[in-house]
Amino acid sequence: MTTPALNVLKYEDQIMKTPKEMPFRTVLSxxxxxxxxxxxxxxxxxxGILSLAQGEGSVPxxxxxxxxxxxxMKDGKTFYAPVPGVLELRxxxxxxxxxxxxxxxxxxxxxATGSGTTAMHLALTAVLDEGDEIIAVTPIWxxxxxxxxxxxxxxxxxxxxxKEGEGWDLDINKLFDAVTSKTKAMLIxxxxxxxxxxxxxPDIERVMDFARERGIWIxxxxxxxRLSYNEKRTPSxxxxxxxxxRLFVVNSFSKSYAMTGWRLGWxxxxxxxxGPIRDLAMYDNMGxxxxxxxxxxxxLRHGETFIAEQVERFKSNLDMVADRFQKNGRIVMPKPQATxxxxxxxxxxxxxxxxxxxxxxxxxxxxxxxxxxxxxCEGWVRMCFAVSKEKMADALDRLEKVVxxx
Length: 406
Fold this sequence. Notes:
The chain folds into 2 domains: 11-60 and 306-402, Aspartate Aminotransferase, domain 1 (Alpha-Beta Complex); 63-302, 3-Layer(aba) Sandwich (Aspartate Aminotransferase, domain 2). By secondary structure, it is α/β, with parallel strands linked by helices. The chain has helices spanning 11-14, 26-29, 35-43, 63-74, 87-101, 116-127, 142-151, 172-177, 201-214, 274-282, 290-302, 304-328, 352-363, 389-402, and strands at 50-51, 110-113, 133-138, 154-159, 161-163, 167-169, 183-189, 217-221, 247-252, 265-268, 331-332, 341-346, 365-366, 368-369, 380-384.
C-alpha cells in the first residue's frame, strides 16, 4: 500500500539544497524523517482535532509545586544557579532515591537538567564520538534516535519481540550478540515508551554485569519508573550498579508530576562524570531556571500522593481502553506493565501511516504511528491515555468511526 502524501512540508523540503545556500552542518540535512512529528503537525491543521499523539496528560501541575516555584521567584531566587543544579534539588533527588529506591546516591553523582531530553543529550554527547556504535533497544521515542544522529554515531537497533498472547519481550542474547569492537554504549528505555514493557531485575543485572566486563556504557532512560501498575517503582540499573560504573540514568519531572511544560529533569552518573557534564551543560544552557528547581524540590518532597492518584487514574483509563478494544474485535493490544500508552495494531491494517492519517481525516483523532519508534513497529499505533475519562471515551468513539467493530 502506498503511504499517503501529507499536506505538510517535510524538513528536507524546507531547507535549501546547495552548500552555498545552506551554511549549516551536513548532519542536519541527513537526519532521518520524524514521521511521528509530521503526522502530529498534520493533525493540528484540522479544526476540532483531538490529539492523543503526545506523551502528555490533561491534569495541570498541582498547586503545591507551582506555589513553591512562585514563592522562590518572589523570594528573589531568579539569579544564576550552579550549573549542576541548586544543592537543595540535588540533595532532594538523593533523598528521593534513598526513600523510594533504598539507594545511596551522593549529590556529586546527580545533575539537574533542563528536561529529561536534555539529560539524554548530555549523556550521549559525553559518551559518543563520530563512528561509535550504540545499541538501542527499540521501539524507542524518535527524539532519542535523532539525538544519536546528531552525535554522528551509528545506531544498531535490537527490537523487542512481540509474542501473541504474551506481550513484548527482549532476547538478551540478541542484545549481547549485537556488540562489536565499535560498541561504545547501550541505550535502554525501561519502562518502554511506547510498549510499556519493563526490563526485569534479573535481566538488568545480567546486562549491567556484561557491560561492566567490557567497558561499555549503559544509558538507561527511566522516566516512567514510577508509573507502574504492579509495583511502587520499576527495577532500576542503579539497583545493580557499582558507584563508578559506566552508567547514566536519565529521569524527568514531566510525566510523574504533570510538569511537561516545565522542562526539568535529572541525570545520575559516576562521580568522574561531574566535570564533563558540567562543562557540556555550561556551553548549552547553564542548567534549568533557578526558581523552577524549587518547584521540583516540592514535587519530590510532597508528590507521593499525587503520583499514586495519577497511577490510579491511568489504570482506570487503561481498563477502559482494554475493554473497548476487546469488544471491538479487530484491535490487538498487549496490556502495558507501566507508562500511559496503549500500543496497538488493527487486524488488516498493515500501513500505520495510512491508518493514522485516516484517523485524522475521518475520525478527527490524532495518534502516533508505530513506524516513528523504529523499524520493528510498522503497523502499530500509539495512543496516550493520560487524559480525563470523558476525553478518553470521546477518543475511543472517534477511533471506532474508522476502525469499526466486528
